[in-house]
Amino acid sequence: MGLMTDTDRSDPLDATPDDPGAAVEHAEPTRWERAADLFGQWREGRTRAMDELVRLMSPVLWHVVRAYGLDRALAEDVVQTTWLTLVRRHETILDPKAVSGWLTTCARREAWRVGKLQRRADPTEVEHLEPHLPIQESAEDSAVDGDQTSRLWSAVATLDERCRRLLRVVAFEERPDYARLAQDLSMPIGSIGPTRQRCLAKVRAVLESAGGER
Amino acid sequence: MNENFDAAADAALFARLRSVWEERDPVPADLIDRMVAAVAVADLSREYALLTLVETADLAAVRGEHDTLTLQFSDGKTSVLLHVSETEAGARRIDGWVDGEALAVRLVQGEREWSADAGETGRFAFDSVPAGLSRLRLAVREDDGLREFETTQFEV
User: ipTM of the assembly?
Assistant: First the structure.
């Protein structure tokens, strides 16, 4: 999967290194393949393909942006900025196959920038309140999955911020940009993989001590 | 790079983590529609339905020193009403109303663009834009999806 754009490599938006650990299902086209296809169609003049691309990728962008601790309104702004940036700067993506990585990288970069401003302007840190918001689920779901989900959620809550962010980004991006992630988290790129494993191990340890589940 | 010896177990745990985040911090209702609309009014490769000027009223004489302009655009079905006034700093304030649920509204002056939020009431506002030739683009929710409109140029 050596998908690189051949634009200026100093721009992280244009770099999409392979993810050494992502779990990708091969039975049907992966999300990034569908994104690439839709982006290609849009460029060839099928304007509605952009609507489908937005529908496909917005949920991913949402979770990636929220990993940076932005409140929900700001997170929505960042997702929107990401899309407008794509429309404005799409010529810089020389290989349509890079569009998925370009979008998530752009979203993370913008989330990082906006997050710094938010922390400076708002010392009350809204994001710490939000995990306690009422859980949204239907009655049928909660009976079956509620217990497992609660335990996993509690396990996630015990993680430090760096672990939570890393796991959430990796969970939602199929091929995270480890170079940029390393930069955001002030970590050497080589330590992302081990850190990821350490964070997963922590989740497992908490789950096991909470009820024999792995 | 750390070799992943139990990739399947990790993938399974990541899948569960995904569903926890999806459940506990869900994508806001309507976010996707709002994003589609925001892109629709910014994407110039589209064909917009044209809203033409059907009525204009200059209320300067009535209101005195500050120029106040009312413009109405329509394609026969969807209408947009704009109320343009001058701010104290000499810029323009535009209050608008569209008879539909606008999910995105964008004002364009040459290379410059501003976006406004519009809700179910159809009201929107641009607090301060420079005087000049302008155009409005809107994405309005209709029964069978989204429809994009663009007004003819007007001077504010």
Answer: 0.83
